[in-house]
């Protein structure tokens, strides 16, 4: 099993639109092979950063989702709202 930390930074004016797109991604991902769960966290200090922690059965399934056109289409819209590139960090269980 793996967890993927996905970090995104945006200005306050774009935060609501960003959260809507992240929720759209989460709706799209439900039922995908290998997907287990995810949660979305908003940074308190300083504000403007959103972290999604996504849990997968294996890296293989995550990479399938990462390369999917569905995800890429929504991610392009997300990128337009960000102040920096989306960060992806993959962790595995010991």
What does this protein structure show overall?
The protein is 40% helix and 32% strand. It is an alpha+beta fold. The chain has one domain (2-87): Alpha-Beta Plaits (2-Layer Sandwich), CATH 3.30.70.100. It has a 4-stranded antiparallel β-sheet with strand order 2-3-1-4. Strand 2 and strand 3 form a beta hairpin. Helix 1 packs antiparallel against helix 3. It is globular. The termini are close together. 11% of the residues are buried. The mean pLDDT is 95.
The CATH topology assignment is Alpha-Beta Plaits
Strand residue content = 25-35%
Give me the secondary-structure category: alpha+beta
Task: Determine the mean pLDDT.
Answer: 95
Q: What is the CATH level 1 assignment?
A: Alpha Beta
Protein name: ABM domain-containing protein
Pfam families: ABM (PF03992)
List keywords for this structure.
94 residues; Alpha-Beta Plaits; four-stranded antiparallel β-sheet; 3 helices; 4 strands
Brief account:
By secondary structure, the protein is α+β, with helices and mostly antiparallel strands. 40% of the residues lie in helices and 32% in strands. The radius of gyration is 13 Å and the shape is globular.
Layout of secondary structure:
Blueprint: E1 2-9, H1 12-29, E2 35-42, E3 49-56, H2 59-67, H3 69-79, E4 87-92
Antiparallel strand pairs: 1-3, 1-4, 2-3
Helix pairs in contact: 1-3
